[in-house]
Design goal:
Largest sheet: 5 strands, antiparallel
Shape: globular
Radius of gyration: 18 Å
Strand content: 25-35%
Order of helices and strands: EHHEEHHEEEEEEHE
Helix content: 10-25%
Structural class: alpha+beta
Number of helices: 5
Strand order of the largest sheet: 1-2-3-5-4
Number of strands: 10
CATH topology of the largest domain: Heat Shock Protein 90
CATH superfamily of the largest domain: Histidine kinase-like ATPase, C-terminal domain
Number of domains: 2
CATH class of the largest domain: Alpha Beta
CATH architecture of the largest domain: 2-Layer Sandwich
Length: 268
């Protein structure tokens, strides 16, 4: 199994889309994904990359291998600081475009994804998450969702954790004990995640954030309204966009238990 480090692909001009596509295809092939799925990976990467160039004045694609119970998958996070979307559902419709294009990019990406989510703030930018899984993977039976950005070597020191608990529309913060670095290397819950299992009578959603110290201890989730109702990969992409350290290395894992308020644009 190839490493699960995040591949960063800057996409500012059309020529860089081809480079990102090669990265995604190479990783998907190394993971052992079926040949026909490689065509979907190429299409997905191309559509998300074209969307960055046409609508967001450029951005980044974060590409990462996945595994669940031995089955491989591929995640592509599209991150930008573009104009954002006033109406997300309208932007997902085929034929809608604000840039004179055919208006099929995000709609196609959503249709071919096994998992898809999108978060956009007008005037601030957009994060899109898409996952394609190898056939037979029963990924939706996992008792938690996870999102990871791992750039550079895994940290050698214990990571720092914080637990966000949503009750009745309000979010509180607590600090569980530090976790072990190996928990950042795959999509299995570390021991601390057991404390994130919500009591249905008390908590609607609990999100455990593990990171290697790049995130200010005073940080709150308030800068991203309603993001905890999205897949944790969306929050991972936003934290990368807004808080990645200058040296470029970062380790971040977000684990979520409890039922998010799934948005209409999420296919599953």
């Amino acid at each position: 199994m190839p490493d699960l480090l995040t591949r960063l692909c800057s996409v500012q001009v059309p020529q860089q889309i081809r480079s990102a596509r090669r990265q995604a295809l190479g990783l998907a092939a190394a993971l052992g994904m079926e040949t026909d799925l490689l065509d979907l990976v190429a299409l997905l990467t191309g559509e998300l990359g074209s969307n960055l160039v046409s609508h967001a004045q450029g951005g980044e694609l974060l590409i990462r291998g996945l595994r669940h119970e031995g089955s491989p998958g591929l995640e592509v996070l599209s991150v930008d600081r573009g104009p954002g979307m006033q109406d997300v559902l309208l932007c997902l419709q085929d034929g809608f475009s604000t840039a004179g294009t055919l208006g099929t990019g995000l709609g196609v990406a959503r249709k071919i994804s096994d998992e898809f989510d999108l978060y956009s703030q007008p005037g601030q930018g957009t994060v899109v998450m898409s996952r394609i899984w190898s056939r037979g993977s029963r990924f939706r039976e996992a008792p938690f969702d996870s999102g990871t950005v791992l750039i550079g070597p895994a940290p050698q020191a214990p990571v720092r954790g914080r637990l966000l608990t949503c009750r009745g529309g309000k979010t509180t913060l607590s600090w569980p004990k530090p976790g072990a670095p190996p928990s950042l290397m795959d999509d299995a819950p570390p021991p601390e995640a057991a404390s994130a299992t919500p009591d249905s009578d008390q908590a609607n959603r609990q999100v455990l954030i593990l990171e290697d110290g790049f995130l200010d201890p005073a940080w709150t989730v308030d800068e991203f309204p309603e993001v905890l109702s999205h897949h944790p990969s969306i929050l991972a992409g936003l934290l990368y966009r807004e808080h990645a350290p200058p040296h470029g290395r970062m380790a971040l894992k977000i684990l979520a238990r409890g039922a998010p308020a799934r948005h209409p644009h999420c296919p599953r």
